[in-house]
Amino acid sequence: MQRNVDYVIQFQTDSNFGPTVMNVFNEDGVKVVAIDIPMPGATFFGANNPKSGYMSGSYLAQAAINKFGKDKVMQGYFVVGELPQSGAIPKMRTEGQVNGFLAELPQFDKAKMLRIDTKNTQQESFTQMSNIVGRIPEGVPIMITAINDQSATGMLRAVQQAGRQANVVVVGNGADETQTLVDEPDFVASTGYFPETYGNYLLPIALSALAGKPLPPAVLVHHVMINKANVCRYYPKFKCADKADFEYKFPQDAFSSYLSELRKQDFLKGYEDLVPAN
Asked: Could you tell me the pTM of the whole model?
């Protein structure tokens, strides 16, 4: 450390590098806030991954039932775009998507749940989805969600290229591909993260730490579901649709039960403080 750093705001997406990076800061006693990917000794700031995932998964199931009917949905395939390289915390998001979907459709055939490694990019998501879309029988629903909007968009493009768009419904994560949400009929919603407001969290966290004030182990973002009927409320440059396709209801009781089980999962050992209370 050559520049007399007082505080670091850190973001990188590979959990394997976290300990090495933090060793440098820890040796010099520099306090750190880590965005989205936890690092040992740093305050965590980022998504409420279990809830944001549960929201998108449950919304996807409800949207699919509204579009296709429950009987046809049960014949369909559910595809999740994951990001294994980023470790346990983003895994909470994609596991939340799976469990949110199953909260609405508990009898859904798990053999029809497919997972792909998106590498966090639209191109890789397109490639991997193209590789598996041929395994899905013609005419059945294809229900897609992913670690972020870019990955969900790549997956949608693969389905469109295969000529299967009549049977697809997509819910993203992040709401940062807002034009896609507005323009694409089958991209029905996305969980909002509002990264443009992160500075409103990060600067007070940094100033509090520098002042010696105690901080919680994690500060989590508040999420909402953004769809075509409310997008203008959050991003005024876009026009809202006249009405939502259906009234989404978050399954709070099922989510509370899920959180209790989540804290017991082996993959979260050492990260229990990052699981929200409710």
From this structure: 0.91
- Phi-psi label, residue 117: left if phi above 0, alpha if psi -120 to 50, beta otherwise: beta
- The CATH code for residues 7-46+195-220 is 3.40.50.2300
Per residue in 210-256, pLDDT (tens digit) is: 999 998 888 999 999 999 999 999 999 999 999 999 999 999 999 99
- Average pLDDT, integer, range 96-109: 97
Assess contact for 11 and 37: CB atoms under 8 A: yes
| Backbone torsions φ then ψ of 145, nearest 5 degrees | -145, 165
| Those residues with Cβ within 8 angstroms of residue 265's Cβ, 6 or more apart along the chain or in another chain | none
In 7-48, which residue ranges form alpha helices assigned H by DSSP? 18-27
Tokens of residue 202, six digits: 């990060």
Token look-up 């919304």 returns 59
* Contact of 93 with 268, CB cutoff 8 Å: no
84 burial type by CB count under 10 A (0-12 exposed, 13-18 middle, 19+ buried): middle
Q: Rounded to whole angstroms, how far apart are CA atoms 42 and 24?
A: 12
Tell me: the pLDDT tens digits for 9-45?
998 777 777 788 888 888 888 999 999 888 888 899 9
Residue 269 has phi, psi (to 5 degrees) of: -60, 125
How far is the C-alpha of 271 from the C-alpha of 49, rounded, in Å? 12
- From the number of C-beta atoms within 10 Å of its C-beta (0-12, 13-18, 19+), residue 210 rates as exposed
- Report the alpha-carbon distance of residue 160 to residue 259 in Å, rounded: 36
| Domain 49-194+225-266: CATH superfamily, name plus number | Response regulator (3.40.50.2300)
Say which residue, 2 or 251, is predicted with more confidence: 251
Listed by start position, the domains of the chain span: 7-46+195-220, 49-194+225-266
Q: 7-46+195-220 and 49-194+225-266: same fold?
A: yes
Q: Which residues, listed in sequence order, are joined to residue 173 by a DSSP beta bridge?
A: 191
